[in-house]
Amino acid sequence: MSQIIALTNQKGGVGKSTSAVNLAASLASLDRRVLLVDLDPQGHASMGSGIDKYALDKSVLDVLLGEASAGDAIVTGLSVKYDVLPGNGDLTAAEVELLDRDERQSRLSTALATVADDYDVVLIDCPPSLNMLTVNALTAAHGVLIPLQCEFYALEGLSALLDTVEQIKESVNPELAISGILRTMYDKRTSLTREVDKQLRDFFGDALLKTTIPRNVKVAEAPSHGLPVTQYARFSRGSQAYRVLAKEMIRKLSL
């Protein structure tokens, strides 16, 4: 059975899309069949996978509106080893477009049900906000992976996200659980990182993943080349960290 994992944090700039792309690539390199769903209007996960977000014939918005099936919109045969259900700026219209649609919060779940058996894991890159797109992702998902930057504002706003997860769990998706908290842009040499690290351990306990993603210039450069860092600079510290993350997630989720 496929595992569907939503990567979400309503705070931008925490490495969410970067982590979605590189976790997808790392899992695929370990022979897992992976689908990456780009539900963020910024389209960064699509671009980071080598897809021109401005030249899409079909996108995840068409799937949400029932104008295309997931199978028709999925892009295969890329230079990366995983498949992508791409998204772009058209998704900004989703909030309004879905208002008058039946079962608007479960449209992604319904669409993914038709293709999920073709994959071991489906990763959903959510927008940096708690809107209808994020609700669709959480309704479809089995787990939530939350990337967090190690800074003083790391916990700000997380209570709203955790409340939303709990509401979705109680109302429409009882299987939903926190799959892990991922520390990104991590530099253990600084006292700030150590202080925030303690906050996160006290707050999240065992949900805090052992793997950390370091600050690394190669991770920042890779998207401009349309590649995961695991292909762009496979021996970099960032690349190695995402491979370790993939192995940890495989063990944690029995992928």
UniProtKB/TrEMBL annotation:
TM stretches of this protein: none
One matching Pfam family: AAA_31
Highest taxon in the source lineage: Bacteria
Record domain AAA: where: 3-178
Coiled-coil spans in chain: none
PANTHER family, per database record: P-LOOP CONTAINING NUCLEOSIDE TRIPHOSPHATE HYDROLASE (PTHR13696), PARA FAMILY PROTEIN CT_582 (PTHR13696:SF52)
Protein name: ParA family protein
Organism from which the protein derives: Vreelandella malpeensis
